Structure formats: structure tokens, C-alpha cells
């Protein structure tokens, strides 16, 4: 007998009387969508034309299914993915990972999918006309564990520099700076049996500018990854989580990715996240393993020194600001 499969969407339509999140209300508001396929990967992004969230669910039928909410009835229904996301139609096999960014002031969309047949598809789409501008394909020659878009700079978008020689207005300068920065989007693709690879500047170079991440044990299985500025220098490093109970860190030095260190953990790394759990303005590295959760935090003294070095106190305590 074939088992039943559902997509369960939990929501809290209204806060409680104290205007606080209530877990009981969340459990009581479950919307169930019956599926006729085995679900593989769940992802969400924004449908900008309708200003709403769209859920993507890849399945054993080698399709990506899209679900949107009918606000009037508070129900979800499957929509035609070709109407709004033509780049996600007819993937080559079962989709294992999806990453989508809206760029160029939300006029373009960069979509990446990693499939079970070891292929990666990168698509650049003009949103208003729903037109595919560019498509790149790459064969990883091994099972894909994740695809992840990222900027090298941790401070994107950079502020426009105030120069007397620059005839642009501040808004024009910021727009130009942002557009130039968005040409430098990179893509990390990790594999469970082969070397992980980074594609630099994918919107302009596609898959041609690729860098394989070196490692002492090329046969280790990489199960997860995260891009984070772990040394607080303004540029992001790559951290891979391995089956061999290790975190492996890389840094972009002299136009190449170099191995800068490893650290052991209690068990195989399942997933990682870089977020501010303590709400102190500095992100922590959260590592989920088969035996528990590790949280790595920056030394507060180092953070303080970095903060002092980045602040121009002469401007803060100038005569004009004190008047």
C-alpha cells in the first residue's frame, strides 16, 4: 500500500491577546496539501509581481512544484511555475537544492538548481518580461550536496564614496556601486565525493571562472556549507562541514581560494548557519551535527578591537557634531 504524502504549512494568522507568538496557535493552524510525489527539497522566495511568498517543492517526478497563498480564503494551491519562473521548468532530474536571488534592483533574477544527475543549472532572468537572458550548465561529476550564491564582500552593497571629483549625485553613485557589485556574485557547489567548486562572477563569466577547493582528503564527503566573515575583515570565507567530523575553512587570497584551517567537532556535520543568536550585533556560527549543536562565538575582545579600528572617532567627536 502506497503511503500518503503531504505538504504541511503551519501559520499563525493572528497574535494572541498579549500580541506574542503562541506555539499552540501555530499547531492548530495547519494547512495540508496532498502530494502525488515524494518530496525532496523545500525552498521559498518572493513573487515580486504579486508581492507574495511562493513555496517551491521538488519531487520524485523530476519537477519543481510552486505553491502560493490565496489570502482571501487562507489556503494554498499549486500554481503554474512556467508563468513566473520559466527557468525552473523541466529540470534534467530530481532537484536536490535551489538558490534564488533577486538582483539589479529587483529587475533580474539569478536562479541555481542542483540535480540528482550531478548537473547544475544557472539561469539569469529578466523579471518584467520573464525572459531568459543567459543559461549555464555544469556537470559536477559527483553527487551534489548544496548550491549557494554569495558575495565575497561582507559589506555589500558598499556606500558610494564622497569625492569632490565625482560629478554624480549620491543616489547615482550608490546605484552605480550596487550595480557593479552585483556583477560579482559567486556560486559555491559542494559535492559528497568530489572537490567542491566555486564559480566566480557567475552573472558575467558563467561557469568559466571556476576554482576547486583544495583539501588533504579529496574523498571526504561534504554535507553542508556556509559563507561567513569569520575573521571580521569584511570578506566572507567558506566553511565546509564534512562527514569526517571536521569544519574546513577557505579564504580568497591573491585571486585563489586557499585552505586556512580545519577544526574537529563531535560528529558528522549535517548543516550550518551564520546568524546573530545572542542579539548582540555579532553573528555566531551554528553547527548541527549528528550528536548535537555547536555554537561558535567571536572573542568579545577581538570584536571590540575590530570595532574601534573601523570607527573614525574624529568625525564623531568633531566640533560640528558636538555643537
Q: Which helices and strands occur, and which strands form pairs?
A:
Blueprint: E1 5-10, H1 23-28, E2 30-35, E3 39-47, E4 52-59, E5 64-70, E6 75-79, H2 81-84, E7 95-103, E8 108-115, E9 119-126, E10 131-139, E11 144-151, H3 170-181, E12 185-191, E13 197-199, H4 202-205, E14 210-212, E15 222-228, E16 237-242, E17 246-253, E18 256-264, E19 269-275, E20 284-289, E21 292-296, H5 300-310, H6 313-316, H7 319-322
Antiparallel strand pairs: 1-2, 3-4, 4-5, 5-6, 7-8, 8-9, 9-10, 11-12, 12-13, 13-14, 15-16, 16-17, 17-18, 19-20, 20-21
GO molecular function: actin filament binding
Protein name: Kaptin
Region (Disordered): 160-181
Task: Please give a quick description of this structure.
By secondary structure, the protein is mainly beta.
What does it look like?
By secondary structure, the chain is mainly β. Helix content is 14%, strand content 45%. It contains 7 helices and 21 strands. It has helices at 23-28, 81-84, 170-181, 202-205, 300-310, 313-316, 319-322; strands at residues 5-10, 30-35, 39-47, 52-59, 64-70, 75-79, 95-103, 108-115, 119-126, 131-139, 144-151, 185-191, 197-199, 210-212, 222-228, 237-242, 246-253, 256-264, 269-275, 284-289, 292-296. It has a 4-stranded antiparallel beta sheet. It has a 4-stranded antiparallel beta sheet with strand order 7-8-9-10, with no helix packed on it. A 4-stranded antiparallel beta sheet has the order 11-12-13-14. The chain is globular and about 55 Å long. The N and C termini lie far apart (79 Å). It comes from Bemisia tabaci (Sweetpotato whitefly). One of its GO terms (cellular component) is lamellipodium. Residues 160-172 have a biased composition (Acidic residues).
